[in-house]
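Researcher: Quick sanity check before group meeting.
Model: Go ahead. Protein one:
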Amino acid sequence: MNIKNLIKAAVFMLLMVASGTSFGQGQQGVSLDKIIARVDNHFILKSELEDMYAQYKAEGRSAPEKCQLLESLIINKMLLAKAEIDSVIVEDKEVDGELDAKMGYMIQRFGSEKNIVEAYGKSIDNLKSELRQQVKEQKIVEKMQRTISGNVKITPNEVRKFFNSIPKDSLPYIPSEVEIGHIVKLGTVTREQKQKLRDQLLELKQRAEKGEDFATLAQIYSEDLGSAKNGGDLNFAKRGAMVPEFEGAALSLKPGEMSDVIESQFGFHLIKLVETRGAEYRARHILLRPDYNKGTDMGEAVRSLDSLRALIQVDSLKFAKAALNNSDDKETAESGGLIMDRSTGVARLTLDASMDPALYFAIDTMKVGDLSKPVAYRTEDGRSAMRILWYKSKSQPHTANLRDDYEKLATIVLNNKRNHALEEWFKKAQGDVYISIEPEYKNCKVLGLATGDDS
């Protein structure tokens, strides 16, 4: 495979595999920690290669040759190594946000944290630590790619030339695509469940008042897994860093005092102030979260969505404005409620088996322009909700043409040009980093290097 095609395949595979979740073979007790390649200070273990290969198989996909996977891993490490040389970094908050989203997806997929632990044979803390490193590397790779090819631009003339270069009998067939919008309202935790959580925290407070160690109780009971392992310690925080409910309660305490039960967007807290230092304060807390799969009241969500639907139907409120101001899905709210295709970043979804089944079957009974009644919905982080769907548009299947498919063609041209920029970058970067590959992979030609050669 030439370098140009390799870069395309490697970047695709790395981002695709990174978007999933692979934590190694801990659950089977297999140890494959043998270094098979090195790129500057970055090492590739045999387990990484086997994990990537196994993930393809587990998901029922056709796995590439292992040599190609090894090449993709080395390209990944080259991007990381050059990022270090060029001082390209990502902020912790970017990593934390992505990590929280991935852990939420896993909880939804497995049903509970307990099920995750049983599946992987590792604690949640260990899994998060491993996944955090994966997420951080993924973010750095993405940022490095943007640094290399982010300034690449294309012109309409380039798109037209590309289209005209495709033989007429080779033009791709474009399936139907749809634009779907939604407005999401989360369910309300019932009074009974809220009271249950308050009672649990009050009981823990009484135990602490009778002499039990607050930190130990936090380690055992707190559902803030990040701080629980440190006895609920949140370290020093500046004023304004925490949500108002938490900060107000913490700053009303004297060192050593415990708060009443405090409710915030994250759940219910029992707070113990440790100390203050100028404009900073340090506190411990025990957090209990509502179970969004049980004890969630959908009545208010349904009433709110019914009211919005009525206003939209009589045209006194536009769907986009209603979504922006009311939807609890903040990601789509900013795009007027339109659901994006994550692989393209465009608000058009291919109407085929790749679509979310719940969405596919919902719109199967709708016509373009229809606005659905409130239907049940599960958010990516596993919370119960309701939503209304707007069937905005549907395209007919057709042979690609410049008028209807300009945006798709432009994306192809732009990606080709970016890949060319990456190709040129890799040619130069090979001379800036040290690459070594174990002789057992002598049949692999990695970036044109002979096995065991250094570059």
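Researcher: Fine. The other one?
Model: Protein two, sequence then structure:
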Amino acid sequence: MTALPVQPLSPLDGRYQAAVSDLGEYLSEAGLNRARVQVEVEWLIYLTGASMFGSTPLSEEEIHSLRSLYVDFGQQDIDWLAEKEAVTRHDVKAVEYLVRDRLSTLGLDHIAELTHFACTSEDINNLSYALTVQNAAQAVWLPKLRSVIDKLQALAQAHRADAMLARTHGQPATPTTMGHELAVFVYRLERIARQVDATEYLGKFSGATGNFAAHTVADPSANWPSISRAFVESLGLVWNPLTTQIESHDWQAELYNRVSHANRVLHNLATDIWTYISMGYFRQIPQAGATGSSTMPHKINPIRFENAEANLELSSAVLDSLAATLVTSRLQRDLTDSTTQRNIGVGFGHSLLALDNLFRGLGEIDLDRDALAADLDTNWEILGEAIQTVIRAEVVAGRSTITDPYALLKDLTRGKRIGRDDLVEFVSRLDIGADAKDRLLALTPHSYVGLADELVDRLS
């Protein structure tokens, strides 16, 4: 059998690449290396700007040229690093050599020894990961989550007054509205989105064991913690003052747990919408040229929601593993996090793919109000809750002598299908006040939705 040409092993880099490509800008190997170059370059600019070890500040033109090393980072740099790492067997060292090589090209050999000065590889790596994950979360994942939230909110408003039979434990229950049920998901997801948006992206820059040992030998008079803090914060990160060789990854665990939490709420949404489609509450809008089944031409499968469900599970599996393992490092450092962190993009990628499917799927459904109405019309027994509650209130007010209203309604309705006429006859004979009786006689499954419509405004 002829061997296939080299193929992507992950579907994120193959079949689904178009849906997740924006993440590759940050969470790919190339994105990581660009961030590493950024950290190395900015450290050079910082050291020379502070005239450390007799250096002099660079000119604006020189600073611009240096920053172009990461601003214009491209395929030539990617290839150069691949060749160099094949020799060094060390990814960060290859980046250091790249920066040194470019310094020579720019005529800045005189500051070459400040490249990677007093740095352990993890000083560069932890800042680079913080920058790439921050960008991926803030510029790619969160906007896609918010697009789904916005779509849900629009649907919640559109269907705020569309009464439907609720099903607690899968059984007919007190009615609600479709808008209210969708608004619940909006509220849950928006709360998590705010938590993700408030994530602190921490960074350390303190040497081989986090103690500025080499730094203080090189210059005992410098306030290295202050320098470290200023540099980390200059990158838009939060300084971590107490670490081993590695930044402790606690912020990563917090972020991945939050994204995984969002995944699980979205999973709940996907399965609920799938169920509403199965029940006929939502019709799926046919898409031109699409095939639902290879043999049953009538079918429109809820593939968007099924695809989302599966990818959310995959994403949470990866992110849960990252959150659980990254917070542990043997003694002052081990390398288990090195290969683990290379899967951050996989975790975010499956979540982003799911969000893309949910966004599309929510735009391909239409509420069938007739189906909702038919379901309500065949379940008048759900008004038993309202009737027994009103009777209890009347008893307390001294307008009724009925004992055990709950048992009375249980005998009438439990496990039975009754209609409007049955309830009208029952209510008409009740020992309750006239106003209460009128309210109950006017009640229908369609109107028994409480404040569902108004509660949607809580999203404003």
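Researcher: One line on it for the slide.
Model: The two ends are 62 Å apart (CA to CA).
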